[in-house]
Amino acid sequence: MKPRTIIDKIWDAHQVRAESADTPGILYVDLHLIHEVTTPQAFTELHSRGLKVRCPERVLATLDHSTPTLPADAQGRRPYVTAEAERQVLQLETNCAEFGIELNGWNSEHRGIVHVMGPEIGATQPGMTIVCGDSHTATHGAFGALAFGIGTTEVGHVLATQCLLQRKPKSFAIHVDGKLRPGVSAKDLILHIIGRIGVGGGTGHVIEYRGPAIEALSMEERMTVCNMSIEAGARAGLIAPDQVTFDWLKGRPRTPRGADWERAVAAWRTLVSDPGANYDSEVRIDASAIGPTISYGTHPGMVTPIAAVIPSARNAQESKALAYMQFDGGQALTGQKVDVVFVGSCTNSRLSDLRDAAAVMRGHKVADGVRMLIVPGSVLIKREAEAEGLDEVFLTAGAEWREAGCSMCIGMNGDIAQPGQLVVSTSNRNFEGRQGPGVRTVLASPRVAAVAAIAGVITDPDAFQERAA
């Protein structure tokens, strides 16, 4: 048999009908994740056509995008930013009850960001096909799943059929050799990769991240890497499952037990690319050459080592981006005044991310004039962080400790900055207006973000911690 990539293996196992020159193929979907923003129209379509949800047991819902991250008042009223945001939440609650879909709602300890909740309960497993009406569904590829975002019309299609029309994407291997230096994170790595291949470098492809530096990452770090695959234009990103994956999943609520677990792991071990498998594209990255990395423009491909100067614009688009960011080519990023710092999002809101930020902030104060929001990815992560005393570290430093949710990543719930303000954000997108009209966003790791909050300006974390030592 011809050697196959892991992408081929998962695709072949789920292909109901092969594509032709005139029609896309039909792909079976193992897990459909939904939230309140991209589902109302889909459920309305089901109603209008008298359709049921084909496999409600394969659909899992949560509340995340429009949910306030401030607590309810004494009467239990939640401070939704708009009546529309509240209606979205209420509508999902209604739809899930009507169609028999499990909802991690306000009373669930797993309520939170959809791409945090799925792995947390073990619903995300190797070899699966996973879809969600959210572009960062690629996160689940960290477990060796083929996971990608879909549009609202496709959400309705999957609800009704448990299948999806798709053309098979090309394959792209990114080999990361060597090892990351101490203090360099998975966020630095993926920003570096996107800067290297460009925001269109992965278009039409699924990226498989390979190599010793990838194998050395924790599951949380792997999720960070796969999460931002979409920012390189890729359809999805994934990492072959290994013992790190199995150890992380074992014992979670939705994973198999006993003999079923052993059989599952045996099957999951086969989900590796065969020796000699061909990829449509390949790139090699030297992990040891990567340092703390930060964005400076208005898309995630405009990145640079934090200690370097801002590159000069090479075209009209980059000139426009620099003008929006109020930066000049040749200018240092370090020393730029920071107004807001956000630690959270489906990229960096897990317990390890909060620990990274707390390790920097312990014994320090947030600088005068800086607002810092720390938003855990789920209710469970919030509880775990509080059990470790991380909330006290943040609160003592002067940061805001919030309820779980997407928060400032996209600012749909009212967590936004003011026009002209500079935000250092651990999220995944720095588009114009992403975190509020006229807001300037710089993408960074939790470590870099925490240092910026304390210093009040963008600061090289290595230099900062040398001074603090």
Features:
single chain, 469 residues, alpha/beta, five-stranded parallel sheet, 16 helices, 32% helix, globular
Short description:
With 469 residues, this protein is of the alpha/beta class. The protein is 32% helix and 16% strand.
Describe the protein's architecture and organization.
With 469 residues, the protein is an alpha/beta fold. Helix 12 links the parallel strand 15 and strand 16. 53% of the residues are buried. The chain is globular, with a radius of gyration of 22 Å. The longest helix has 17 residues. Helix 2 packs across helix 5, helix 12 crosses helix 14 and helix 12 packs parallel to helix 15. It contains 16 helices and 19 strands.
| Shape summary | globular
Largest pleated sheet:
5 strands, parallel
Strand percentage: 15-25%
Total E-strand runs: 19
Give the CA-CA distance, first to last residue.
58 Å
**Structural class from helices and strands?**
alpha/beta
H/I helix tally: 16
Name the poorly predicted regions.
none
Radius of gyration: 22 Å
Helix share of residues?
25-40%
- Give the strand order of the largest sheet, numbering strands 1, 2, ... along the chain: 5-4-3-6-7
Give the overall average pLDDT: 97
Task: Give me the secondary-structure topology.
Blueprint: H1 6-14, E1 15-17, E2 25-28, E3 31-34, H2 40-49, E4 59-62, H3 83-99, E5 102-104, H4 114-120, E6 129-132, E7 146-149, H5 152-161, E8 163-166, E9 170-177, H6 186-197, E10 205-210, H7 212-215, H8 219-227, E11 236-238, H9 243-249, H10 258-268, E12 281-286, E13 293-295, E14 303-305, H11 316-325, E15 340-343, H12 351-361, E16 371-374, H13 379-387, H14 390-397, E17 400-401, E18 422-425, E19 440-443, H15 446-455, H16 461-468
Parallel strand pairs: 3-4, 3-6, 4-5, 6-7, 9-10, 9-12, 10-11, 15-16, 15-18, 16-17, 18-19
Antiparallel strand pairs: 1-2, 2-8, 13-14
Helix pairs in contact: 2-5, 6-8, 12-14, 12-15
